[in-house]
Amino acid sequence: MTALALTLTVVTLALAGAMAGFFYAYSMSVMWALDAVDPKVAIASMQSINIVVRNAIFFPAFFGTPVVALIAAGLWRAQGLHNVALLLAVAAIAYLIGTFLVTILLNVPMNERLARTTPPVEIEAARTIWESYSIPWTLWNHIRTASSFATLMLTGWALYLAGRHAPTWS
Hints:
The protein has one domain (2-165). The protein has helices at residues 2-36, 39-52, 58-78, 82-115, 123-165. α1 (2-36) runs antiparallel to α3 (58-78) and α3 packs antiparallel against α4 (82-115). It is elongated. The protein contains five helices and no strands.
C-alpha cells in the first residue's frame, strides 16, 4: 500500500504542478498579451480559448487533482502517517476552494457571459467590454494560481515527510 500511496502523491504533485503552471501562464502572459491587442481581437481570442480549453488533457488535471490528493491522504492515514495525510487533505481543500470553486463560481460565469458577446465594431465599446471582463477575470485567476501553487507546495511537503517517515518503500 505504501507504493500506491507514494505513487498517488507523486501523481498529485504532477497534477497540481500542471494546474499551477496553467494558471500562472494566464496570469503572467496570456492575459497581458490579450490586454495589449485590439480589444475586439482579445474578445474573439478569449472566446476561442474558452472553447478549446475544454479538452481531454485539461479535464483530468483540473478535476483529478483534489480527488487523487484525497485518495493518497486516506492511504497515508491508513498507514499511520497522519501528518502526511493532513498535508494532502489540506492541499485538496486549498485546491477545491481556491481553484475549483473560484473557477466554477466566478471565472466560468464570466467566460459564459463573454461567449454570448458579439465584439462591437466600435473600438471603445469593445475596450469597455474587454476591460470589464479582463480585470476581474485576471484577479480571480491570480487566486487560482496562488491556490494551485499552495496545493503543489503542500503536496511536495507531504512527499518529503513521507520519505522521511517511511524510508524503506515496501
